[in-house]
Amino acid sequence: MLNGLKHVGPIILRRLLDTFDHDPVAALAGYRKKLLSVKGVGEKAAKVLAHWSEHFDISIEIERMKASNIRFIAQSDDAFPPLLKEMYDPPIGLY
């Protein structure tokens, strides 16, 4: 979901995950001051992250995935390919 938010590109996403111990929930619940301490996160991105539910409807995304028979595999999932985890900059997840 983080990768679906405005003002949060792949580089900022990686920095957020690094700052919040690879916990996307912690990044979304992060305090403004800590969010702003992440290189590249400015006021706009911090505001979007703090109010993510106003910018991203997860229920719609889940329904789209179900309708298309698509599954998301996060890095933390056992089904995530082990060799991809060894990459310098692995994807946060696979569809």
Account of the protein in words:
The protein has 95 residues and is mostly helical. It folds into two domains: 1-56, Orthogonal Bundle (DNA polymerase, domain 1), CATH 1.10.150; 57-95, no CATH class. It contains six helices and two strands. It has helices at 10-19, 24-28, 32-36, 43-50, 58-67, 82-85; strands at 73-74, 93-94. A two-stranded antiparallel ribbon has the order 1-2. The longest helix has 10 residues, at 10-19. The chain is globular, with a radius of gyration of 14 Å. The mean pLDDT is 86.
Produce the secondary structure layout.
Layout: H1 10-19, H2 24-28, H3 32-36, H4 43-50, H5 58-67, E1 73-74, H6 82-85, E2 93-94
Antiparallel strand pairs: 1-2
Major β-sheet annotation: 2 strands, antiparallel
Uncertain runs: none
* SSE sequence, one letter per element: HHHHHEHE
The appropriate CATH architecture of the largest domain is Orthogonal Bundle
Fraction of residues in helix: 40-55%
CATH C-level class of the largest domain is Mainly Alpha
Number of domains: 2
Radius of gyration: 14 Å
Percent of residues in beta strands: under 5%
* Average predicted confidence as pLDDT: 86
- Total number of beta strands: 2
User: What strand line-up does the widest sheet have?
Assistant: 1-2
State the secondary-structure class: mainly alpha
Compute the separation of the termini in Å: 12 Å
CATH topology tier name of the largest domain? DNA polymerase, domain 1
- Give me the number of helical elements: 6
Indicate the overall shape.
globular
